[in-house]
Structure formats: structure tokens, C-alpha cells
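Attaching the record inline, Q. Sequence:
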Amino acid sequence: MIGLDLDKLTSLKVKVLGGIFLVFFLAIAMVIHGVLTYQRARLIRMNTLHAMQTGHTVVAGLSSSMLQNDREASMEVIKDMISTAHFSRISVLNKDGKIVMTSEPSLAGKILDKSSDTACIFCHQRNVSKRKRTAVIESPDKSYIRTVIAIENKPTCYTCHPKENDIIGLLFVDSSLEETNSLQKETTRRILLTAIVIFLFGVVLINFIVTRYFTKPLDALQVGFEQVGRGNFEYWVDVKCGGEISDMVDSFNIVTRAIGRYVDEVKAKSNEVSTLYSIVQKMSLTIEKKKLKEIVADLLCEVLQADCVTLALPAEKQKGIFEILTMRKGDKRHYHSHFHIESEAKLSCSLTRDELVYWGDRNFTSPVFSADGTRLLLPLQLDKMLVGLISVDKAAGETFTLPQRKIIPVLAHHMTISFANAQLYELAITDELTGLYTKRHFLKKIKQAEKEYLVRKKGFSVMMIDVDHFKYVNDSYGHPVGDRVLAQIGELLMANVRHGDTACRYGGEEFVVLLNRGDTTEARNLAERLRKRIEAQPFTIDTIPPFHKTISIGLSCCPRHFCTAEEMIKGADAALYTAKDLGRNQVVMFNPPTD
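Structure, as predicted:
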């Protein structure tokens, strides 16, 4: 509370009002002093002139009565002047300083010492004319103006006074200053009353003016600075005071808006950089196309706040076939499928056959938005290589924002590079003949599965496959035909394994599939389905009559059988040889030997 009071006392408003009122009081004091000084001097001068005129009249009357040696007549003249001229006292002194006649009997006969008497020293201690003397005498009893008039020695007076004396006496005319002092007191009182009234009115008026046109706008401006300090650059200071403060407030509003826009731009750039960094970081987590597709779909849903995202990527070495991935908002699953461009079936996603054909003919290479701004077709192309086509759909009533539109080209660039690198990596880990993954890639994936089991206890299975009597094909029709048989078996494997499983060519006519689950029943059912699908497939190659081939499959499951990659491979291989020994064209689950 004390701090608050001190703040109020030291506020700008108090300082301004205090300064104004201090100047006001000084001005009033100077006015009173000037008026009183001037008034007093003026009144004294008027009284002095009046006393001089009256004194000469008294001197004339006294001269007449003195020539007749009539003392009583002289006193009557003095008394008349006292009553008519309103003087407080009239006295006549001889040349020795003795009061010979006076209106105040107590002074009669008194001799005044000119060097010590109060009534004399004001003249005799100063260089004042002896013929016209006037002074203000202040005594404890009263204050008065004394006018001294010399009584000259004229020829008519020579009978009584020596002719060599120029002056035969002095006339003292005393005028009271009570009325003057009273008038000055009344003047001071009236001035003070007027000043108080003006002061009170001035307090109200100046306080209103200072508050309305000075402190209130500054307080509003201070609140504005506080809001800006808290980061609220949209705060608007609204004052109506005019003048320089209004201009300052307008400048403040303009500057805060400019700072706000700059801060928003910096935030947008920061968010854009952060988003791009997050995108690049997430896409750099893998170089496998299978996982990269899912990461890109997740990123597009998150960054563009999409309702549905569809990716279509051309399948390697399978002309006209697209790998389709679809993801919808609120559903964490990714839906994988294949689509043949010559198929009459309708795509189960937002993309259409015509859009894929249009993109495949290289008719557009930049982002295309729908007329209502709710859909985006994003082509991915690196030089002359067609990487893929992405469809991004917004929910009903939503459109792509300006920041989203600005980031889309950058997104497309990074995704194109990532998918192009993934395709190159795919080529490096893919068997050229069958299109399946290589043995080296299989060994890498099974090691990862082993580590994942140790961490998450997630099981996996190994399916070892061998084509029955494949040597007969090579011997009967030649190695080129055998290669094409292997290629077709590779296509059948890719088409019939689940997404997430890894189909590889292990070597020669041997294949291996890494299943991402360890359930033995599920693994056996999938193996039987593959065996039956290949058994039913007629192989038609050039002019060679159609023929059929069968496969033998050995299975091992983690953790049912083994927990390490090496043991799993050995177990599946052992089961495969058991299947061959039992007559081929069958599925055998690894069975541990019993003692």
C-alpha cells in the first residue's frame, strides 16, 4: 500500500499538477505583493499631498493668528484641521525643537531630540530636503505618515523673530495608516478569496484537461506497452485527445502492427523450418520404400491436416501396375493394394484411373488444387523419372491454408528425393530376375526381427521354399525358360504374401519369406495357401505347352522353436528337407528331435 501511494505521489500527473499549482501560487504571491506595494505607495503619496496642502493652509492660518499673538485662535485652526481633514495629530515646534502647540495635550512642551527621537531621526539621519519632509513611522502603538512643513520667517514675523533666521518653526502633520492598512488587509483578503476560488476551479479544470488530454492517453499508451511486452501485438490503443500524443499513439499502433506482422512472419518461418526439419528427420529414418510410404502418408495427414491421403507408386519391373497406399484421418492403419492401369475395376481410393493415366503421360508436373480448394494432386517427378502421384483430400468445408500451400512444393521436393533414393536402394536389394529381395536383405531383416523380439517379445516366422524338380525345367526347356518360371513364381509370392512380410530369393530355385508374426497356425495357413496357389498356376512360356510346378515349404517359428536368426534359418531349412524327403509339394513345420 505504501509503495502504491508513493507511486501515485511520484506519478507524472501529480508532477504536472504540482508544477502548475506551484507556478500559480508564486504568481498569486507576486500579484498580491505588487498590488499591495503599489497601493500602499499610492495611498501614502495621496496622503502626503493632502497633508502638504492642509499643512500650508494651517501655516497660513497660524501666521495670521500669531501676528495677532492669539494662541487660542491658533489652536482653533489646528482643531478645525483635525476635524475637517481627518488627521490624527498636528503639532507646531519652535526652532529649538520644543512643541509649542499640538492637538495632543500630552505632547505640549516636549522637546524633541533630532538625533534620537523617533519622530526626527528619519530625516536628520538621511540626506533629505529640510523644506519637504515625509516619512512613514512604525511604532508598537500605531503606524502613521508624518509630513514636516517648515514655517518660514517672513518680514511680517520680524517683529518677534530675528530676521537672519530662515525658519522660525516646524509643522508636523501626522496621518494615521490604519485606514490604509485596513484597506490593504481587505484587498489581500479579497485577492486570497479570489485566488482560492480560482484555485479550486483551476484544480478541477486543469485536472480534467490533464487527465483527459494528457495522463489518460498516456495511461492507455502504458497499458499498450504492457500488452506488447506480453506478446499481444494485436492490442489497439484508442485515444481521442488530438495533438502530439494522438500522433504518438497512432505511431505506436502502426509500429506494434508492423512488429506483430514481423513476429508472425518469423514464427511462420520458424514453424516452417521446424516442420521441414521434422519431415526430413522422419523421412531419413528409413530408406525402404515400404516403410517410407507409411511415413509420408502420416506426415501429409499431420502437416496438411488431411482427411485422406493416397499414394500411388509404379511397381518395379511391372509395367502398368501401381502400389496403392491409403490412410484416413482417425485411422492409424495403412491400407495397401495393387492396381493395374488396364483394369476396369474402380480404385478404392480418391485417385482415378484417368488421373493416373494423365500423370503417366507427363501432362502435369506441379501441384494441382481442385476448384473448391479441398483436394490436391501432388505429382512426384525427378527429371524424367516418374516417382509417384499423391492425392490429399480435406474434410468437408475445409480448404488448404496459405502456409500449407507454401510448404507443399518443399514437401514434394523432399518426398521425391526420398522415394528416388528408396527406389535406388530397392534396386540394390532386389533380385533382378524375380523382383524379390536378395538374400543379403533377408539376413538384415531377420537380424532386425531378432532384436525386436528381444525388446518387444514380438515373434516372427521363417518360410523356406524350394521349387520341386526345377532341374527338369532347365534340362527340358533350357535356362531362359527356367528363369522365366522363377520370375513368375516371384510374382506369385509378392502377390500372395501380406504387407509387412518380406519375400526374398535365397539362391537358385530357393526362396524364403520372413513373416512378421510367430503364430504357428497362421504361418502354416499362409504356407498352404501359397503352395496351392503355385500348384494351380499354369506356366505358359512362348510356344511351350502349359505346365505346372509345385513347391515344398519348411517352417520355423519364434519363439515356439528358436529365438535367434541363425537357428530359425537352420530350423526352416531342416523342415524343408523333411518335406522333400516326405515326397515334396507339402508344408512341414519344424519338429524338434526327441531324445
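The two ends are 93 Å apart (CA to CA). Residues 36 and 184 are 6 Å apart (CA to CA).

More tomorrow.
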